[in-house]
Design a protein that fits this description.
Two copies of one chain form a homodimer. The first copy, chain A, contains five helices and three strands. By secondary structure, chain A is mostly helical. The first copy, chain A, has a three-stranded antiparallel beta sheet. The N terminus and C terminus of chain A are likely disordered. Chains A and B meet through helix 1, helix 4 and helix 5 of A and helix 1, helix 4 and helix 5 of B. Chain B binds a DNA duplex through helix 1 and helix 3.
Amino acid sequence: MTLVQPSDSEPGKAGSAIAFQLDPASGVPTFLQLVQQVEHALRLGYLTTGDQLPKVRDVVADLAINPNTVMKAYRELEHKGLASGRPGQGTFVTGTLSQAGLPEIAGLRRALQRWLVDSANAGLDEDGMVALFSSTLRDFRERGAAAESRAARSAPREVGGGVA
Amino acid sequence: MTLVQPSDSEPGKAGSAIAFQLDPASGVPTFLQLVQQVEHALRLGYLTTGDQLPKVRDVVADLAINPNTVMKAYRELEHKGLASGRPGQGTFVTGTLSQAGLPEIAGLRRALQRWLVDSANAGLDEDGMVALFSSTLRDFRERGAAAESRAARSAPREVGGGVA
DNA sequence: ACCGTTGTACTATGACACTAGTACAACCGA
DNA sequence: TCGGTTGTACTAGTGTCATAGTACAACGGT
């Protein structure tokens, strides 16, 4: 034991740290799940420059995975310019991905919560909701692409999706 | 050349066949993406007993993947009792997963479409929408679990997620 | 200066996903 | 019955993911 006593919101953690969570059934590689969760938090503004990510050894203990796996995730984030490790201190966010304002996101989130409740009331389970979201999003993407190809005769546009 | 001429809706395909689509960036194994897409279509009632799945060789040609990979997906579906291969004919749906009525789903889908439009108007890109959905769903799951653990003192319940 | 914390590097090993290539089996229609 | 279509089986090889285990480097506080 040292000086830190574990609790729900551990002391010594700067900013709002996120809590990683794994979904073994998803088929997504562990290290990628970590990367994606950080990116999601960055997109939604739940994490910003200066915030600390969970310490490698903490993640290892919480998720029962190998340090190398956590390192692979953090290295990927560093490579994308989103985080940086500081030996002796921790790993910290160095970039951001937020695109919409926090209030807008909060509103969208509430609307989505209502939709989830409606879905549950309609008899859908969680997998069903995911299925419907995936399907609707795919449609949305295709419609958008179709609309663009209709309008882009003279204004070609890049559609690449990297984080750059 | 044989008798079939490729077009947008190929002749010779019974029922409503689904069109597979891969997302290389997702990290999800190819064969699992195929399985999940069929399961999603089954959940939403877009595919039902008797419908034909894309022929192995068609999938191979369309997605530029190996027959073994498609077979792995179809074998998994067969193992779950959802599909069955008939040499010389194709692979057909043998089970269903739909839980809510088609009209309910259509309504939920429209609501979700509106939400996607709103999100786009708020400045969110597709990744942002996925991020917000994932985050909100995770909350939803935790809230539900909390509500259950509050009410389930005397009525324990299974939460397993398999397709059985 | 020392010690503990934290990030980082390295090798080796097992499991899994995907591929290439070949061959065979079941079914349908002419 | 024959030929084409389709599903299926098999082997072998490659790359990635995750693991265990060990060791080192950078930083802060006392």
